[in-house]
Amino acid sequence: MPNLLQIQALSLSFGGLHAVRDVTLDVRSDEILGLIGPNGAGKTSLINCLSGLYRPTSGQIQFAGHDLARQDAWRIRRLGVSRTFQNISLISELSVLDNVLVGGHSAGAAGYWASVITWSNRKERALRADAIALCERLGLADCLNELPSELPYGTQKRIELARALVHRPDLLLADEPAAGLSHGEVNEFGELLRDLRQEMGLTLILVEHHMGLINAICDRVAVMVSGRLVALGTPETIRNDEAVRAAYLGGAGEAA
Ligand SMILES: Nc1ncnc2c1ncn2[C@@H]1O[C@H](COP(=O)(O)OP(=O)(O)OP(=O)(O)O)[C@@H](O)[C@H]1O
């Protein structure tokens, strides 16, 4: 499989704190790559660099022929990279459908309001139809007009996922999507991600502490410790890697 994303010698520092240290990593088209590591290992910081929320201190990020390392977040999103956040960030005053539509609008160059003014009605209608179809696919058809806060947590997670997928990204960065879900919901969510990868031709980077989910759906797993990439391989290889077990799996990661 060709590489969709190439991360080369990427580092990010906050003053003297090295959150990401010299990470080099290729992500293949259509793969699900798990990103694991203890708390504070730098997983979210790496994702934040990929999505343009943080500017890396040094290094390169090549995505489908574009250099992302010094791009603004909205431009990265328009190039086809989307993300979900550790903490659900839905807009409580908007309905489920409007929350999802905001995801489609924010892929525009100047953000939601400018695009509301400039988008043609035809594009608006197409986006709306697309958002409704996606909501139906994610099991949200019955709650399109409800407020997210009145819905169960697992449903809110699916709304967030719909919002990230509505502009049809090529790469989805999912930051702890299983956090807070029950055992059954985690399994369902994993199956959904795997199916969506197939249906939408998605490539996924999945930051997760839930090892059951990582083992169930990831093609490869990357392990970060103290900002560094310390191992990369199939879930089975990573499970049996002594150094990884010592650094991580024997500690925080075993719980899930
Ligand atoms: N904006 C920031 N300013 C200062 N330090 C930060 C900032 N963001 C992250 N850090 C620090 O960078 C390090 C890596 O944090 P990061 O959140 O990337 O780790 P993580 O692997 O995602 O952890 P967790 O699994 O707990 O989410 C931590 O020491 C954290 O405190």
TrEMBL record:
Database matches in Gene3D superfamilies: P-loop containing nucleotide triphosphate hydrolases
Gene Ontology CC annotation, any one: plasma membrane
TM ranges: none
Matches recorded under InterPro entries: AAA+_ATPase, ABC_AA/LPS_Transport, ABC_transporter-like_ATP-bd, BCA_ABC_TP_C, P-loop_NTPase
UniProt KW keywords: ATP-binding, Nucleotide-binding, Transport
Residues in ABC transporter domain copies: 5-251
Protein name: Amino acid/amide ABC transporter ATP-binding protein 1, HAAT family
